[in-house]
Amino acid sequence: ATVLITGASGYIAVSIVKELLDRGYNVRGTVRSVVKGDYLKNLFKAHEPRFQYVVVADMSNEDAYDDAIVGVDAVAHTASPATLVARDPQDVIKPAVAGTLNILESVKKRGPSVKRVVITSSCVTCMQPKAGEPLLYTEADWNDHSVNEVQAKEIDVDQPHKYRASKVLAERAAWSWAEKHKTEINFDIVTILPAFVFGPLLNEAKSLSQLNETSRIFYDAIKTEKPPSVATKQFSNLVDVRDVALAHAQAFEVEKAGGQRFIAASVPFSWQAIYDALNSANPPVSNVPKGTPGAPISDRSIFVSEKAQNILGVKFRSLRETAVDMLDDLREKEVQW
Ligand code: NDP
What we know:
This protein is of the alpha/beta class. The chain has one domain (about 1-330): Rossmann fold (3-Layer(aba) Sandwich), CATH 3.40.50.
C-alpha cells in the first residue's frame, strides 16, 4: 500500500515516514522544495525505491494535492505552520485550514483507493479553560477559548492563541467536511493530538535555524547557563516523537480507530524534571543545568492518553528516555553546542 504524507520534511513527519517504511509501506512525501526532498531521499536510500517525494510548493492552492494523490491508498496530513509566534493570526490559520480542506478535496476527486486520512492535530485543541487540580483534558474537550480570543482581539491576541486557534479550526474543518460529504466519500478520518513533542531528530538539523520550534525550545532550556527561575512550573505534557509516529501508523491499521480523535501524551513535565532525568541518567550526561534537584512540578494539567493506549496500542516512553535521546541527537548533530 502507498501512503501519501504531507509536510514530509517536518520533525514529526520524518519519524512517521521511517515508521511506515519499516512496516513495509510505500511512502510518497510532499515537500516544499527539491532540497528538502533530496535530503529525505538520501536519508531513506536504504528503502529505495519505496520512498518518493513530490514538490507541493503551496498547499493553499485549491488543487495543490491533485497530482500527488493519484494512486495512493492512505494519507497522513501533517503539514501545518508549526510556529508558536506569528504576527497576524490569519498567517497561521489560513494555511492550516486551507491545507486540510485541500487534501480532503483532492482525495475526494482523485483518490478513489484512499480508505483513511490521518491528520496531525494537537493537544492544544483540547485546552479548554476548566477548574480543578489536576486539570484533566480528554478527546471530548475542545479549545473554543483560543478561537474566541482570536476573533475578539485579532492581531493583538496573546501569542499562544494564534497557533492553538489554527489547530482547532483546521481539525474542526476536517470533521465538518467529512460530515458534509459523508455520502460521497469512501474514506474516514482519524486525528492524532500530540502533546509537546521531543525525542530524536531525523529531519535535517545542521544549524539552529533548521530546528523546529519544539526542538529549539528544548535546546534553549538545556543549553542555558542559567536555568529559568520558573523551572519547577509545569511547562506542558510531553510525548516522544517515536510514539507519535507509532500512533499515526497504528491509526492506519486499527480499523475501529476510524472517526476518532486520539491524544498522544506521556507525562506532564517541568524543565526541572527534565534536568533531574538527564542528570541522573546512566550513562551520565554532561553539561546539564542542575536547577533545584528534586523540586516537584508546581502545577499540573494532564492530557489523558488512555484511548491511544487502549485502542491504538501505543505504550508511551518515559520522560528520561525521550530527554536523553533528544539531547544525544542534538549534540551529535553539533547544533552549535
Ligand atoms: P515542523 O515545523 O518540523 O513541521 C511542519 C511541517 O509543515 C513542515 O514539513 C513544513 O514544511 C510544513 N508547513 C508549514 N507551513 C506550511 C505551509 N504554509 N504550507 C505547506 N507546508 C507547511 O514541526 P512539527 O514536526 O513539530 O509539526 C508537524 C505537525 O505536528 C504540525 O501539524 C504541528 O501542528 C503538529 N504538532 C506538533 C507538535 C510539537 O510539539 N512539535 C505538537 C502537536 C502537534 P517545511 O519543512 O517546508 O517548512
